[in-house]
Amino acid sequence: MKTPKINLQERRDFLKATAMLAGGAMLSSIPLAGAYASGSDTIKIALIGCGDRGTGAAFQALSTKFNIKLVAMADAFQDRLDSSYQSLSSKFAAKMDVPKERQFVGFDAYLKAIPLADVVLLTTPPGFRPIHFEEAVKQNKQVFMEKPVAVDAPGIRKVLAAAEEAKKKKLNVVVGLQRRYQTNYLESMKRINDGAIGDIMSGQVYWNSGGVWVRPRKANQTEMEYQMRNWYYFNWLCGDHIVEQHVHNIDIANWIKNGHPVSVQGTGSRAWRTGKDYGEIYDNHSIELTYADGAIINSQCRHFEGISNRVDESFQGTKGKIYLSGSNQAIMKDYSGKELYNHNTKGNANPYQTEHDELFDAVSKGEYRFSNVDYAATSTFSAIIGRYATYSGQTIKWDEALASNISLMPERFAWDANPRLMPDEKGLYPIAMPGQAKVI
User: Fold this and answer.
1) Res 156 pLDDT > 80
2) Does the predicted model carry a pTM greater than 0.70?
3) Strand partners, 41
4) DSSP-derived secondary structure for 273-325
5) Which residue, 381, 372, 9, 384, is CA-closest to 177?
6) Shortest CA distance to 173 belongs to which of 23, 412, 417, 372?
7) According to the model, what pLDDT value does residue 36 have?
8) Distance of CA 16 to the CA centre of its chain
9) Within 10 Å of residue 333's Cβ, how many Cβ atoms?
10) For residue range 262-313, what is the model confidence (pLDDT) as tens digits?
11) Contact present, 266 and 390 (Cβ < 8 Å)
């Protein structure tokens, strides 16, 4: 059977209509059919994915002012669950109710934890996000899930289908693109939408840094366990750092353009992190995102040690320009140099915390307010197309890419199963070669 051609262009109106609202996705105050599965005034949460980001998300959820208890935890690895449990218990002992029988380990652990909660936190490596999100919606759960929301086109389609069901069921869904909840970005978007710098015609977005951790291979590890432990370096789990990390900056480009690129082209390579410890991903990507009105935004991300770091966004309009960063900066000027806006960086709320404050406020009041998935899926797929472009060396069109049936996921999830990508006799993994790689 042919996969239906799906076009996200129609979602541009949704994005434009919601850009000015809190978190980019305030919908309505329609009461939910039932705020809590238990019928009590305690909001029960389950943590699916107990790594550092998952533990952080649970920390933020439990730090809200609402009556919340963590009642279930799930992870592929026992040691990750144990570490997370100890860390959270040291701070939130009174809000922890996770006895051993509600601590689940393995690939199917999420199936056991999700039914026990009112709100689920989905924070595993992103390759699992479509599967876990689909199950959470099926189980009628409110959701916080981390970015990105998928690693390939089939995963994006699964997420979008589940998002439509979540809307029908009035399930709040907040996604961890925290800049959408950050004061300097929200204040700047108000001014941009009011025409302060005119129509956005170009821009530059960056995530240049020294890279992340490596976990050396251990004796007797299966290939599945090794790749799961080193999930950042394998596309079925991570999507490459242009997807896992740089999605934040690409999301700002889409937000400011009220849409998504219609095509992407660019280049990338492995120039510095070339050894077997770095799996299959590139260490640099430079792409051009072309939008429907002809505007081009340049995107750059790299993992080189010893370089000058840069994580920010700049945009040029017909009347002026703006500089933004995750450190709460926002400086807007016209082309004569006159300052139009300079955001006060002091006293701004932590956007990671704000995401949870707003989600749990809605849940506690039984209100349906948040459907972040449209823009999260759009920005995730913009980054995925960036990977398609750098790996292939081709210009990738949005509609053609979204219809792709190439899945990165293993055929079977088990510790003795092999992922699709395997190392050679020297322990090196195949690397995508522009001009040869088949991506869509």
Assistant:
1) yes
2) yes
3) none
4) --SGGGTT--SEEEEEEEPTTS-EEEEEEEE-TTSPPEEEEEEEESSEEEEEE
5) 372
6) 372
7) 59
8) 20
9) 16
10) 999 999 999 999 999 999 999 999 999 999 999 999 999 999 999 899 999 9
11) yes
374: closest CA among 105, 161, 186, 203? 161
Strand partners, 257: none
Which residue, among 132, 127, 125, 119, has the nearest Cα to 174 in the 3D structure? 119
The whole-angstrom separation of Cα 30 and Cα 7 is 29
CB burial of residue 432 (10 Å; 0-12, 13-18, 19+): buried
Q: Which helix (H) or strand (E) holds 13?
A: helix 11-18
79-104 pLDDT per residue, tens: 999 999 999 999 999 999 999 999 99
246 phi/psi in degrees, rounded to 5: -70, -10
The two tokens of residue 221 are 């590890």
The pair of structure tokens assigned to 189 is: 């978007």
Q: Say how far apart CA 43 and CA 29 lie, in whole Å.
A: 19
Taking only the tens place, the pLDDT of each residue in 363-380 is: 999 999 999 999 999 999
Q: How far is CA 97 from CA 76, 103, 352, 356, in A?
A: 20, 10, 24, 20
Sign for the pseudo-dihedral over CA of 361, 366, 368, 371: positive
Dihedral sign for Cα 260, 262, 266, 268, please: positive
Token couple for 368: 């349906």
Strand partners for 72: 46
Question: Domains of the chain by range and CATH?
Answer: 43-179 (3.40.50.720), 184-346+372-403 (3.30.360.10)
DSSP state of 84: H
Q: Which residue has the tokens 């970015």?
A: 147
Contact 162, 376 (CB under 8 A): no
Closest residue by Cα to residue 376 from 189, 178, 134: 178
DSSP string spanning 181-209?
Answer: G-HHHHHHHHHHHTTTT-SEEEEEEEEEE
